[in-house]
Design a protein that fits this description.
Helix 1 runs parallel beside helix 2, helix 4 crosses helix 5 (198-224) and helix 6 packs across helix 8. By secondary structure, this protein is of the alpha+beta class. It has helices at residues 18-35, 52-60, 84-90, 161-187, 198-224, 236-244, 256-266, 280-308, and strands spanning 42-45, 66-70, 93-101, 110-123, 129-138, 149-154.
Length: 309
């Protein structure tokens, strides 16, 4: 697992240049694509990966995996030709897309509506080849809120609104990956593991990936299917302890979101009217407390049995 080297003051960051990591990441996905001929693999990256060398590498490898990168640079499209942003602004609106943006710190969940513009454009700076450029620009954003605008580059040819929306959806899915690694690094603290062999580290990360996935899955399940039976997602002891720690008795058929909010409240979630639904951090802290109590339950029960005697 790669992590940025610590930066000392104003000195340049030590270690391998980060740009090489993005190139290496695509190369690993390309290797996987060769072994999965019936599966479409997509390399999705944010603005740090807007590097022509990555696009060139993909082309030289035969583009075994699609790539989708959020554009960072307002590229020159040639001498005497408008730059990329100006060319996009002049392109006709292909249509609109609408989606829900989850709540984030200081901002409530809301519906986002974007106008879609598309270009198929050759990039002259460094031989990156011809790419599709999709611009999603929010219209009607609430007062005081910065409109959501994404400029996306991809190897895939885009000619229809549905094809453009597919790329928007791929980019939106990147946030789920961010949450997974946020939980893995900060909740499971895998970077703090001090195991003495690669094999041990590999097994530990595999286990923690399942834990991190479950936390993200519970968060999403509580938002999309809050009325499901809690038994689908939680163990009986987790349900029992969640209510016990709040001094309550479990109802006959508790729902997923009811248990999730009880657990998240143990992790700092307040649950006020404008707070939205719990995030991964409050869920992982709450689950840690739940698991600690569950581990102690056999000892508590043995102690109670001794007193009864």
């Amino acid at each position: 697992m790669w992590a940025r080297a610590f930066k000392q003051g104003e000195a340049p960051r030590e270690g391998i240049p980060e740009s090489l990591r993005w190139l290496e990441g695509y190369a690993r996905v390309a290797e996987q694509a060769q072994t999965l001929p019936e599966t479409r693999l997509v390399y999705v990256a944010d603005r740090e990966a807007d590097i022509v060398e990555l696009m060139r590498r993909a082309r030289d490898l035969g583009t075994p995996a699609d790539w989708l990168i959020r554009s960072q640079h307002d590229r020159s499209l040639g001498k005497g030709v408008p730059k990329l942003s100006a060319a996009l602004a002049a392109a006709p609106v292909l249509g609109e897309v609408q989606f829900q943006m989850a709540s984030r710190q200081g901002h409530a969940a809301r519906t986002v509506r974007q106008e879609i513009r598309v270009l198929r454009q050759a990039l002259p700076d460094g031989g990156g080849g011809t790419v599709s450029v999709v611009l999603g620009s929010e219209v009607g954003a609430p007062s005081g809120i910065k409109p959501v605008q994404w400029r996306l580059l991809s190897n895939r040819e885009v000619t229809t609104l549905d094809e453009a929306i597919m790329l928007i959806d791929w980019y939106r899915a990147r946030w789920e990956v961010e949450l997974l690694f946020h939980t893995l690094k900060n909740g499971c603290r895998v970077e703090a593991l001090q195991l003495d062999t690669y094999a041990k580290l590999e097994r530990a990360i595999a286990l923690y990936l399942v834990v991190a996935w479950r936390i993200g899955h519970l968060m999403r399940l509580g938002r999309t299917h809050p009325e499901l039976d809690a038994g689908i997602a939680f163990e009986p002891d987790e349900i029992r302890v969640a209510y016990a720690l709040h001094g309550k008795r479990p109802p006959p058929k508790p729902k997923v979101n009811q248990i999730l909010r009880l657990i998240a409240m143990l992790g700092g979630f307040i649950g006020r009217k404008g707070d939205g639904e719990p995030g991964v951090k409050s869920i992982w802290i709450g689950l840690q407390k739940i698991r600690t109590v569950i581990q102690a339950l056999p000892l508590i029960e043995v102690g109670n049995a001794g007193r009864d005697v």
